[in-house]
Amino acid sequence: MNFFLQQLIQGISMGALYGLIAIGYVLIYNAWGVLNFAQGDMVMIGAFAILIAHVYMGLPLLIAFPIAIIMCCIIGFLVEISAFRPLIDANNTRRLIATIGVGIFLRNLVRVIFGADPYPFPSIFGNTAVNIGELKIIPQNIWNTVIGFGLVILLSIFLKQTHIGKSMRATAQDREAARLMGINVKKNMSITFIISSALGGFAGMLICPVFFVIPTLGTLMGNKGFAGALLGGITSNPGSMIGGISLGILESFGAGYFSSSVQAGIAYAVLFLVLIFLPAGLLGKKESRKV
Questions:
Q1: Per residue in 66-86, pLDDT tens?
Q2: What DSSP string describes 3-67?
Q3: Membrane-crossing residues (predicted)?
Q4: List of domains in the chain
Q5: Which of 12, 154, 262, 275 gives 258 a disulfide partner, CB atoms 3.0 to 4.6 angstroms apart?
């Protein structure tokens, strides 16, 4: 029983990070109409940003974290205005190809600057386990879950209670109608990309102590987030978080009860099964759109 709970906690912890990445996919899909396959690379940018700020520059984590997030937001904004905004009225195929191209560019740019070697990152929250009965929970798992859920709650409040959030939702529902009503669609698109980049950056920073920091980290985590988004529903923020956590739990049980090789294939199995049997996801809307 203890082993089961241990794997469950580990799965929820990783799933919370997958959920953050998945919500980044959902935000862009709802606002832009296509999937942003560069979302995973914002995870990689976040990981390298905290590596630079904390390890190379020697800044304490309380200062390095916000600096790294600001770096992610700036890069997300620059990518939006340079690569995506010119294509806002282009067909979906061109926009989809643009997201793939941006991801390839970011990965290779980081590889040129830092090389392809993996960089270790020290533990953020310490290695002393918290004992709850016979369970031993590492602080990283606790904080991953708390921060992941906390960010989702804050995002939900922002989208539902603020003027900017409501205008973003209106833009996502019907961009042309929002434009006719006087809503600044371009501004909302920029904010959406910034928030999406920040979510990816948070996931990248929190995943650093678990994985090595490498240019291909974004590909790995992006695939996990994409699988979580499809499982939960590509149009639903809460659904994407549920999908991410579900994927994390499945992977944790796969690794714990079988092997790490089983864990590696679960995300792709989920993608395959969802596309065949549950194309709208758990909480997504059934619709027909070009991608």
A1: 999 999 999 999 999 999 999
A2: HHHHHHHHHHHHHHHHHHHHHHHHHHHHHHSS--TTHHHHHHHHHHHHIIIIIIS---HHHHHHH
A3: 12-35, 42-59, 65-84, 96-114, 142-159, 191-214, 266-284
A4: 2-277 (1.10.3470)
A5: 262
Residue 288: other Cβ atoms inside 10 A: 4
Paired tokens of 77? 């904004």
Query: How far is it, in rounded angstroms, from Cα 137 to Cα 33?
Result: 40
Q: In angstroms, what CA-CA distances link 87 with 31, 39, 58?
A: 13, 17, 40
The first and second tokens of residue 46, run together, are 């976040």
Residue 161's contacts (CB-CB under 8 Å, 6 or more residues apart) are none
The single-letter code of the amino acid at 126 is G
pLDDT, one tens digit per residue, over 250-283 is 999 999 888 888 888 899 899 899 989 988 888 8
CA dist., res. 11 & res. 151, Å (int): 18
- Write the CB contacts of 6 (distance below 8 Å, at least 6 apart in sequence): 135, 136, 256
| The residue count for the chain | 291
Around Cβ 155, how many Cβ atoms within 10 Å?
Answer: 19
